[in-house]
Amino acid sequence: MPQFAANISLMYTECPFLDRFEAAARDGFRAVEFLFPYAIAKPELAARLEANGLQQVLFNGPPGSLQQALHGEFQDPLARGSAGLPGRENDFRSGVELALDYATALACPRIHLMAGLMPHGVPRDAMLATYAANLLWAAQQAAKVGVDVLIEPINTRDNPRYLLNRQDEAHAIVVEVGAANLKVQMDLYHCQIVDGDVAMKLRQYLPTGTVGHMQIAGVPERHEPDIGEVNYSYLFSVIDELRYQGWVGCEYRPKLGGEPGGTSRGLGWLRKWLSPQ
Length: 277
Prior knowledge:
39% helix, alpha/beta, TIM Barrel, 8-stranded parallel beta barrel, globular
């Protein structure tokens, strides 16, 4: 059975952020992920995790400057990042150092480093060269504290001009960089929109060991995984068949999100999956 982690940046938005840890634990989650922790002190986050018996399994590196990260100033955090931006290497390195500091404090084994948007007039080849060099440096720093670095292909419908879009591109970069702790964050929502043929992509990439984390959401509206065109029950059986041992992050926006109890009321898909047949 897949191990599911609640993404408490998108889920439980009916609660103040720090109360979402308890809400997720109450619904049976044993792990959480979120987008950015940097506006909240590390001891406060660690205390919420411990009090609710939760494991932190993923968060993102800062998407912009260090100053933005410390103040939580992100206009569109899902579409940002500096890993592939020439000239932003200092921002990138400062962000990685901050992310690893948080990862150590929260006992989080992996961080996602966002590639960034392609600026007009900058050749893609130049961005990819910067991306590979930055990822190698980041992986080397992360290895010192036992943390994996992840990269994620993101669809261009939601995030126009995002540098990394396809599964084959991401896995090729992992091979090119050659760091054992650099892996792919395989979000099946983005994969369906860009690549399709998701079950075969799972069969192609999970056995390679280069998938460090997975995420799910319904397509096309990014609601619960039982809403939309993707048969997640089938995909979960494929994941089990392939003996994937990592976490599956629930990075979706609940259809009833914002309403009292809305996230919990939308978890029928999870209860059904966990119930004995």
